Amino acid sequence: MYENTFNKIERDLRAEEGIANELDYVEQTSWVLFLKYLHDLETERADRAELDGVVYTPIIDGEYRWDKWAAPKTTSGEFDHNTVRIGDDLIKFVDQDLFPYLASFRQSATSPQTIQYKIGEVFTELRNKFRSGYILRDVLNAVDGLSFNTQAERHELSQLYETRIRRMGNAGRNGGEYYTPRPLIRAMIKVTDLKIGETIYDGACGSAGFLCEAYDYLRTDKLSASEYETLQTKTFYGQEKKGLAYVIGIMNMVLHGIEAPNLIHSNTLNENVMDIQEKDRHDIILANPPFGGGERREVQQNFPIRTGETAYLFLQHFIRKLKAGGRAAVVIKNTFLSNTDNASVALRKELLEAAELHTILDCPQGTFQGAGVKTVVLFFEKGAPTRDIWFYQLDPGRSLGKTNPLNDDDLAEFVALQRTRSNGPKSWIVNRADLDETTYDLSVKNPNTPEAERCAAPKRSSPTCWRGMLKRRKS
């Protein structure tokens, strides 16, 4: 049923002149879904308060309630065609009354951690792009048929929403900034081995894929009431610079079942890393920070290793944001492992000395659809310096692309072998003592490739190498 509803909404939006692309689709669907979710949440809270004999004060009241402007009902529960807003009247109400009212919550909320504040932030960032009140009316009617009352319903809606985010990510470069393949995220989570009670942080959270997958990993039917409360309010933390990504991230977490996400709309890199205190640190960091960039000098001043490469600044931030003994999994361009510029060398040295970089996952071309760079995932634990590094070269045995993306089975062997850090055709260990102390080069050089390839060199091949090749041919 929900799939049909989403498809109908999409057909409606194709006719809306204010909706230009997949990013607009997700953005405009988000604010409508968000308000319906809030209505269902408030209805549930009001019913619970009535059973407990207490008075419930609604967050959204009066003419701004969903059942007053979006889906007015008669006393018998039928749709009220006499009072419903349509056409220009509906657009005027949304633009001039509803959005300003909801945006004002940002000033009136008691704390940034409240759902009131999140509502204010969302509607400060967003603007309504519907131009036809008739198309908006059709979308409202469709969304009114969705229910957020059970975990199963929220799960189905979250999966449909994730599908739209993935399509947005595939639609272009900007959308791709917000989407990390979920199988890769799940593998990173399994290796990092999350536990209830630990805090989890993503300083470049985008659509909050890492936080949502971490919630799904930790959320089980065996949780106690206190553990569930911890999961809801004291576990997931994120920051996001871009307005659209921030809004989508909040909506994504809400649909996954987190009522008031601890997301902050700010530029993480504006924080001086030397000012980070113990109270600011986290047990777990999961992230895929943006790379490229070209950060301004005033932003670079916040870091001991100054560089315009955004990902390098984020990595410095993450190292300092981890608690002692904290664990991290961070996606970064594979050129970080071998670049010879001063910043790259200094940052590799700092990572090896400040943390135990125990695993590097080398991802194949096409892991990130539309991206022209290869990536690796760095797994490290803060505290003791690095002793040795286990490398794994992911090879799904096929070319990855839009119609043939990475899947969970592709990463199953990596997750299984990482527990024991076993050597094999795709995995090997490099000792810290064997690294070049002037460059700290961590290039992915698999020593287990066929001997003929390893022996290939500009100079004349050695007799030992040729004897090995001939021996294999005879056998």
From TrEMBL:
Which PROSITE patterns does the record associate with it? Answer: N6_MTASE
| Gene3D superfamilies, A to Z | 1.20.1260.30, Vaccinia Virus protein VP39
Instruction: List, for all copies, the residue spans of the domain called DNA methylase adenine-specific.
Output: 154-453
Q: Where does this protein come from, organism-wise?
A: Iodidimonas gelatinilytica
Q: Name one GO biological process term.
A: DNA restriction-modification system
Keyword hit for Methyltransferase: yes
At the top level, the lineage of the source is: Bacteria
Please name the InterPro entries in this protein's record. D12N6_MeTrfase_N (IPR022749), DNA_Adenine_Mtase (IPR051537), DNA_methylase_A-5 (IPR003356), DNA_methylase_N6_adenine_CS (IPR002052), SAM-dependent_MTases_sf (IPR029063), T1MK-like_N_sf (IPR038333)
Main EC class of this protein?
Answer: transferase
Q: Does the keyword GTP-binding apply?
A: no
Q: Which family does it belong to?
A: Belongs to the N(4)/N(6)-methyltransferase family.
Recall the taxonomic lineage recorded for the source organism.
Answer: Bacteria, Pseudomonadati, Pseudomonadota, Alphaproteobacteria, Iodidimonadales
Q: Which reaction does it catalyse?
A: a 2'-deoxyadenosine in DNA + S-adenosyl-L-methionine = an N(6)-methyl-2'-deoxyadenosine in DNA + S-adenosyl-L-homocysteine + H(+)
**Domain named N6 adenine-specific DNA methyltransferase N-terminal: residues:** 10-104
Which EC number(s) does UniProt give? 2.1.1.72
Name this polypeptide is given:
site-specific DNA-methyltransferase (adenine-specific)
Instruction: Please list the GO terms describing molecular function.
Output: DNA binding; N-methyltransferase activity; site-specific DNA-methyltransferase (adenine-specific) activity
Query: Which keywords does this chain's UniProt record carry?
Result: Methyltransferase, Restriction system, S-adenosyl-L-methionine, Transferase
